């Protein structure tokens, strides 16, 4: 069973397509998913890193505080189960995307595995490892030779700063500066030990 979503905590959130399906077949799918993500997840969480792969995705998020979440979702009741509220936002994202995807490709049935997975980030070195793991994922799976070569990853938001929904400064400061961030992104694919 997945741990609960708690305000102000950091999570590695990921899931996979059902069976051998792909979640993203064309570039427009990636773009549409990120727009839906911003609609449903950005109100409740800061995004620290992400990578969208053809058949799965990874996000590193920091949930906002209780008051920010309540205000962004226009909820007055402070006695709510925040984990259920956050899970519902993910459900809206995945269901909305699935419906549009199924319509576009004339398919039926569930697109995603039944539950998203989440791991709390509770150690400093683990945060560093997860950022690197997410950005190195396309290299690990043999799609590209370097993280920067994959177009559907937050690494571009760090290397080529622009108007972004990524909490860029938080992670750049975590690594020290942009040069140190980039130095960490050379070498070999990191392995998650948890």
Q: What share of the residues lie within helices?
A: 40-55%
Q: Sheet bearing the most strands, described?
A: 4 strands, antiparallel
Counting helices, strands and paired strands, the structural category is alpha+beta
Proportion of residues in β-strands: 5-15%
* Unreliable parts: none
CATH C-level: Alpha Beta
What is the CATH topology classification name?
Alpha-Beta Plaits
CATH superfamily: Transposase IS200-like
Order of helices and strands: EHEEHHEHHHH
Report the mean per-residue pLDDT as an integer.
92
Rg over C-alpha atoms, rounded to the nearest angstrom: 17 Å
Q: If helices are DSSP runs of H or I spanning 4 or more residues, what is the number of helices?
A: 7
Order the strands across the largest sheet as they lie in space. 2-3-1-4
Query: Under the CATH scheme, which architecture would be assigned?
Result: 2-Layer Sandwich
Write the layout of secondary structure elements.
Blueprint: E1 10-16, H1 27-40, E2 45-53, E3 56-63, H2 66-72, H3 82-104, E4 117-120, H4 124-140, H5 155-159, H6 168-175, H7 178-184
Antiparallel strand pairs: 1-3, 1-4, 2-3
